[in-house]
Amino acid sequence: MDVDKYLLICEQLGEEPDPQKMPLELSDFPAEIQVAFFLFGYLEDNWEGTSGTYMGKIWTQMEYLFELYNIDEPKVTAYFMKLIESIIINHRGREQSNRRKAAEKKSASGEKNFTHNVKG
């Protein structure tokens, strides 16, 4: 959710927007973190083929990107990029776990999905 959607929801509900609940935008972060997000977006995603698990980014291009964009403090930028990756990996792992648990619960309850091939 972005700020515009949050403000629209508050308006529709007749509530006063709460700055504590308002989503952050990239411009809310310091310049070093904005650069880390920017460069992080250029790195290729790494997915495990069999399970479809997100494994993080492929970091082989990092040094090239630091040189290309003349990054003054590559260690600081790399640190923030790894923090971003860690948060994303944990979030996607929780989502995948929740989906798996929901599917297990559904199959344990005996619910069956029936599909019918109807032509008409």
Regarding quaternary structure, what we see is single chain
Q: Residue-averaged pLDDT, rounded?
A: 89
Shape: flat
Helix and strand element order: HHEEHH
Q: Helices and strands: which structural class?
A: mainly alpha
Separation of the first and last Cα atoms: 41 Å
CA gyration radius, whole angstroms: 21 Å
| Low-pLDDT ranges | none
Main β-sheet, spatial strand arrangement: 1-2
Q: Helix amount, in percent?
A: 40-55%
Describe the structure in your own words.
By secondary structure, the protein is mainly alpha-helical. It has a domain at 27-108. The chain is 54% helix and 8% strand. β1 and β2 form a beta hairpin. The model has no long low-confidence stretch (mean pLDDT 89).
Properties at a glance:
120 residues, mainly alpha, 54% helix
SSE layout and pairing:
Elements lengths: L2 H11 L17 H12 L1 E4 L6 E5 L3 H7 L5 H35 L12
Helix pairs in contact: 2-4
Summarize the structure.
With 120 residues, the protein is mainly alpha-helical.
